[in-house]
Design brief:
Blueprint: H1 10-59, H2 66-75, H3 79-93, E1 97-100, E2 105-108, H4 115-125, H5 130-134, H6 140-147, E3 164-169, H7 172-183, H8 193-208, H9 212-218, H10 222-227, H11 233-237, H12 244-252, H13 266-270, E4 279-282, H14 286-299, H15 319-326, H16 331-340, H17 342-348
Parallel strand pairs: 2-3, 3-4
Antiparallel strand pairs: 1-2
Helix pairs in contact: 2-3, 4-6, 7-15, 8-12, 12-16
């Protein structure tokens, strides 16, 4: 048996409770201070990426669009005509930026970069239920675009100009491999697989599938023989869908302005040199950064405290998976592919380091 302890003096008990409460308050305060500093650090990081884009756009401006070129030519002849072309350019540039007037935020849609998860959350914010989205009769982003209309040019300064503008980015190679796996590799796998086969896959096969005659002709050139060491006629012969090599051939032989939004360079999809984005969230750190970014918007009163994002990383296209696909192409094609996405690499701080010497 343990000896019974005498009753402690009331003053000692109160002192212990007081000290405990002080320690608890200090711990809570310390935890809040840590979270505040962490939030400020991420906020700075996201903003610094936006500043990097501004600097890179000045140092390495992207090619002008057709409308921009026309505006420059027309400026020397007719100011009104020039303004018309400028307006045409802005209209196209705004096509993928959604403005939420009640929240005063603007998001540029970039497919294959958490766009499905964020789209669902925004639609739930607009009043859609989980069942509404589960049993929908339209593609998710069609419903999203019908719900949140793109910014109108006449209101651009009052809406987009004053809103918090953000986008999600991803390593260009991971994104284009993810697009191939999800949209082109198996046309029966996804609900929109047939659409992508009819509009893109079929043409890729028709134009870039290597038949025996072409293979023999290319073998006459050592350079082309090196270029096509990555081709597998046996595999391609029985495939309905384009192989990854054929997909890459299509990308490097097609102007980026003709790309589908799922593999279009992000700088062009969101026209990052035309608009001053406030926050850039990277897919590679998405789980951490998106949570803190949402807290920033909640703190600003731009999202309700109940807002939550259910992130669905369905594709599973990691760096390792990406390397396995890129191994199928030659170094020469790899660098030609890099040239197509060169501005995405530079503007968003990505490198080729993990994808060389495969």
């Amino acid at each position: 048996m343990f000896p019974r302890l005498g009753r402690l003096p009331r003053r000692v008990v109160l002192t212990c409770v007081y000290v405990y409460c002080l320690l608890l308050i200090y711990r809570i305060s310390d935890s809040k201070e840590y979270e505040r500093k962490r939030l400020d650090s991420v906020k700075r990081s996201l903003r610094e990426r936006a500043q990097l884009i501004k600097a890179e756009c000045i140092a390495h401006p992207p090619p002008l669009t057709k409308s921009q070129k026309n505006a420059q030519v027309a400026a020397a002849v007719d100011a009104r005509l020039s303004a018309h072309y400028t307006k045409t350019h802005l209209k196209l540039a705004l096509n993928d930026i959604l403005y939420l007037p009640r929240n005063n935020i603007s998001w540029c849609i970039v497919p294959k970069v958490a766009s499905t998860s964020w789209s669902k959350s925004l639609l739930e914010l607009a009043g859609y239920t989980e069942n509404d989205l589960l049993y929908r009769d339209k593609p998710l982003q069609t419903i999203l675009r019908d719900t949140y209309r793109p910014v109108k040019i006449d209101n651009i300064n009052k809406t987009l100009g004053n809103s918090v503008k953000f986008l999600f980015v991803r390593h260009p190679f991971q994104r284009l491999v993810s697009a191939y796996r999800n949209k082109l590799e198996d046309s029966y796998k996804e609900e929109d697989g047939q659409y992508f086969y009819n509009n893109y896959g079929r043409n890729m096969v028709a134009k870039f599938r290597v038949n025996e005659k072409k293979e023999n002709q290319k073998a006459l050139s050592s350079q082309n023989a090196q270029d096509d060491k990555d081709s597998d006629p046996t595999e391609a012969e029985f495939r309905r869908e384009p192989t990854f090599v054929e997909y890459v051939d299509y990308l490097i032989n097609t102007d980026v302005t003709s790309y589908d939004e799922h593999w279009k360079p992000i700088w062009l999809q969101c026209h990052v040199c035309d608009f001053d984005y406030d926050y850039i969230i990277k897919y590679e750190n998405f789980e951490e950064e998106i949570g803190l970014f949402i807290n920033i918007l909640k703190g600003n009163g731009q999202l309700p405290s109940t807002f939550a994002l259910q992130w669905e990383n369905r594709g599973g296209t990691s760096a390792n998976v990406t390397r396995q696909y890129l191994k199928q192409i030659s170094d020469r094609k790899l660098w030609r592919l890099y040239e197509k996405y060169r501005h995405d690499f530079g503007y968003f701080g990505y490198t080729m380091e993990d994808y060389l010497n495969l």
